[in-house]
Amino acid sequence: MHDLDELLTHCIRCGFCLEDCPTFVETGNELESPRGRIYLVRSALEGKLNWQDDVKPHMDLCLGCRACETACPSAVEYGAIFEMARDIIEREKPSMSKRALLASTTNPGILKAQLAASKFLPGGRVPNFVSKLLSGSKAEADLPTVQANKPLPTFETEVSVRGEVFMLTGCAMQVLYPRVHECTRRLLRRIGYVIRDVPQGCCGALHAHNGDLTTARKLGTELVRAFTGDIPIIVNSAGCGSTMKEYADLIGPECADVAGRTFDLSEFLLSHGLVDELAKAPGLGGVTVTYHDACHLSHGQKVTSPPRELIQAIPNSTFVELPESMMCCGSAGVYNVLQPEMARRLLDRKVGHIKETDAEIVATGNPGCHAWIAQGCREQRSARVMHTAELLEAAFVGLDGFVM
Amino acid sequence: MDFSTLEAILRPDQILSGAAASRGYDCDAYTVDRSKPSVIVLPETTLEVAAVVRWCAASQVPFTSRGAGTGLSGGAMPALGGVVISTKRMNHILEIDLENRCMLAQTGIANRRLTDAVKADGFHFAPDPSSQSVSTLGGNIGENAGGPHTLKYGVTVQHILGVTMVDPLGEILTIGGKLGCGPGYDFLGLICGSEGTLGVVTEAWVKLTPLPKAVTTALVAFPTIRSATETVAGIIATGTIPAALEMMDRGIMNAVALAFKLTFPSEAQALLLVECDGDDADVVAKEMESVRTVCESNGCLEIRIASDEKERANLWMVRKKGIGAMGRIAPSIVTHDGVIPRSKLPEMLDFVYEVAEAHKIGVANIFHAGDGNLHPCFYFDDRDPLQVERVIEAGEIIIKKCIELGGSVSGEHGIGVEKMDLMPLMFSPADLEAQAMCKRIFNDGMLCNPCKVLPNQRGCAEHKMRWRGVAT
Amino acid sequence: MSFEHKQVIQFPDLAQNYLFPGSQTDLSQMISNHSRLRIGGFNPYRYSNSKAGANFAKAESGKLVRTEGPPTVQQCDGHVLLDKLNKVVMFSPADQVITVEAGILLNDLNKYLLDSGFEIPIGLNEKDQEECIGDLMAMNLPHWNLARGGTWRDWVVKMRIVLANGEIVTSGADVVKSVSGFDIHKLMIGARFTLGVISEVTLRIKPRSTPKDYPAIALNHGILFLTNREGLKELLEYSKCHTEDDDEFVKHAMVFYIEDESCLVLTESFQNHFNDAPFDSAKFGHVWRSHVGEFALPNFSESDQKLMRRTKAIFDPTNKLNPGEFGFF
Hints:
The complex is a heterotrimer.
Chain A: H1 4-9, H2 22-27, H3 34-45, H4 51-61, H5 67-71, H6 78-92, H7 96-105, H8 108-118, H9 128-135, E1 163-167, H10 172-176, H11 178-190, E2 193-195, H12 205-209, H13 213-226, E3 233-235, H14 238-245, H15 247-250, H16 256-261, E4 262-264, H17 265-271, H18 274-280, E5 287-291, H19 295-298, H20 305-312, E6 317-320, H21 335-338, H22 340-357, E7 361-364, H23 367-379, E8 384-387, H24 388-397
Helix pairs in contact in A: 3-4, 4-6, 11-24, 17-20, 22-23
Chain B: E1 15-17, H1 19-24, E2 39-41, H2 46-59, E3 63-66, E4 83-86, E5 93-97, E6 102-106, H3 111-118, E7 123-124, H4 137-143, H5 150-153, E8 160-166, E9 172-176, H6 187-191, E10 200-207, E11 209-210, E12 214-222, H7 225-237, E13 244-249, H8 250-260, E14 270-278, H9 281-297, E15 302-305, H10 309-320, H11 322-326, E16 332-335, E17 338-339, H12 345-358, E18 362-367, E19 373-374, E20 376-380, H13 385-404, H14 423-426, H15 429-442, H16 464-471
Parallel strand pairs in B: 2-4, 3-4
Antiparallel strand pairs in B: 1-2, 5-6, 6-10, 7-11, 8-9, 8-10, 12-14, 12-15, 13-14, 13-18, 16-20, 17-19, 18-20
Chain C: E1 18-19, H1 24-33, E2 37-39, H2 43-46, E3 55-58, E4 64-67, E5 78-80, E6 88-92, E7 97-101, H3 106-115, E8 118-119, H4 126-129, H5 133-139, H6 146-149, E9 156-163, E10 168-172, H7 184-188, E11 196-204, E12 206-207, E13 216-219, E14 222-226, H8 229-239, H9 246-252, E15 255-260, E16 263-268, H10 281-284, E17 285-288, H11 302-315
Parallel strand pairs in C: 1-5, 2-5
Antiparallel strand pairs in C: 3-4, 6-7, 7-11, 8-12, 9-10, 9-11, 13-14, 14-17, 15-16
């Protein structure tokens, strides 16, 4: 476990993080920058500022995207500072509504029930009175809808089985994007791996990011217990993977081995020969594809190259880089519900860049980004959004089985 | 003071105040002295800046302009409080004229974004301070920023054609322009490097420089500091002007090795990063060949030459992230900035190591060897007041030595508040009075970025203790 | 070391009491002891003017210079010429800097540097090379090598200046890069000695390089730098001016001369209409802008005049140095 005071001293105030921070770039306000927030936290710890009045608004507006960690030459662990500061603020004065939101989003049963009910809500959006309660402003995020799917063609492969892996089924992903799990299962099988199914719960990532470290630790400990054994853990949701790789810091040394065997799906597919399989696939019929880096994949896990290498290996497709691909889209877990205004600004910025590329498909590796960018693209009639796993599977079976 | 009347000039979201805001803007990247502003404004146009400045002038409220706040000498610290004018919402490119190789931009834009906008067309904005990914055009103009490539391409002033600025009374002035300056007094030369004391520069025409068609970069390891410094002299003497000629010592190597898992020859005591560029690949290759000959004749241990963009970036990482990497081996670092005539490098470096040892603090050196611009980087623990004292003292001794050797108090970080008191070591009272005359052309009061650059200004001495007090 | 003193050009219309300071202290005293002084030997250019109806006259070099009738010279106590202040104070090849007194002729300095394989890449024609560097800096003449070599501002790193009150002050340092307060020396370049008298300068120097075969064209407000001869032809076509002829010159308000085989210099042209020029930069080269002075008096904008007057009032409140200069002091 970290000592917050010690973590803060590593910031030498060089400011190299500023232009990579989405909220700073949008507002130009030092207090909405990583350097500013670190300074506020430090000042509050020293008793010079008040946690609730002075620090909380700025920690609330932080996306927790950790782009600043990528930019930081001094290796300041902003993600850890952010979570610990939010934890202090929440412990001092808990937000019940936020807790309720977290609890519902991360419990598949409740989430399913809510989604069923949401069909009756006007505009498919969080009701404004609920949004006002959570964020003080009107809702921007459409309530998530369960991905509708046509069945995929029958699975065939000549590759023989060579090993077993765990797959994190997680909380939101299994309800919202069951197709992503299906594609993950098929892609792993294409390189000779089968999934060992075990009962499992939530990884605790959303709790950790939102100032509830106690619940996060509890959930994490349970999950690690479920994944006992020395086989790889495959995660197709960037936020979860990032938290799991840092369990040792969050929970303790007993989780030291988890980081070493937790892989983002793209990392595992690339290092276990999917490129060779892709070479034999029919590909995508000449579409143009771009890629949005989910923050917890690029900044949290430093995984930027594997998804690109895989996508570029898809026959009959053109890959174009997305400007500011590593800048957060504004989804950030439950951020788009809690901070709708800023989330909307960042979404518009993201969709604007997507339009610049003229790509027909945007791939990304996280359910939050997936839903949020899809909403923006739908509204502005831009590209279709697919999880990287879906796109890769489509290279084998064609795009027909995937909804527009 | 009633700041609410500012609301007649700006939207509420452009005005920040309160305990957190005052704290957040009380210093830039130089943290030894701090002072809180009452209000921070985020204007979006020159007209808004002018309106704010006129408000300040009418209300007799001090104001200090601020870009990204990456300055290392306290230039953006609001020494007498008042209003901080942040240019960070003025970050638009207004016109790109590739035909005439120039661009008009608002000054709050980050340096790197200027280049990003024209890179595809084969151009760049040449000044490249290490902070270029974040530091603003306005800040670069204020500090007349340098960078690794100044050896060949020159400092910021050489790349600015004209500016629009708001003078300390709120009047909008245009100096130079797309066509550069005509005849008459060279006010542009005066404004570049004036550290925001002459007004608020809001827009600037900058020169665009073609990207070189061929670039080769070499990282060379040497067994001794002296063999590296002699190589620097040797390369310069051949008549080759490398695009960059940078040096790093063992301390930096250790930090970088730890941070990025890079390896260097174990007996290496110094690294030189040499970059040659130009439009003719053969000429560039020939230059690099002559560099190699000089390196070998000075007994280098190893030469790594980058063959592609990725390898180049790797070699540069040692230089660009060297100082940051120091943050991993010690809780605090202070990077100094002094210049000496190039030929005095060996003598000066010996002196730096002696001083560090005598003061019982760690030191690593990373610097623009081609320019004689030294950046000794002291590492220590700022939670120990005795160490802080020793670091400050060692820094002053080193700057004094620079001046003694015919050098300068600062190469690119500026004077700000950090080095004000060292100015008399370099300049006589008459020299400083003449500098004050230059300042008076634009700023004859105590409102526009007060208490900076010139020592012993009336009404400032009594605030010095307060600045230190806020910092501790 | 020092150089043989050369007779300065005499200006018949400016019969004066010529003063030749032999040292910087001398210069300081002369300035202290007089109330009105003309400074510098660049008169052939100084009274030229780009206003409509200007006259043109041939300077001694035979090249055309535009002038505005008889100059309105204010009576002065004397005319200070820097020619005897021509010592090399310090030369450090290792650091690539040289410190010289301001009266040294550019030609002599270049010859001196040539022996050690160095140069100052200020490309002036033969006649201008015979001016002292103090005068050249005070005028900040544009030159054919601007595109590559930059202006004097890019090469001066330190300067000693005698102010109107006789005080000798220093600005800058003997190093190639320095941010040390307000750069008085930059303000002195192009100021025509109206704010102070440049008495000594430290210059960056560079190893001598063989000139490349690029034609360059100097304009009022910048330099058109052409990378091939096609561009040069295009320019001549555009300007409808093919010969170095007085009539042509007057007609088209421009003057140019061939510097050498590869280079043509325009000293007057296209004022402010430059962007209409139909040059294809990809084909013919590119436009390079830089801070340049010009031979002719400009029409300063109101705000420029205001700033200049304010500056003059601070540095030379009694209007002692070069009274009447710039047409409005």
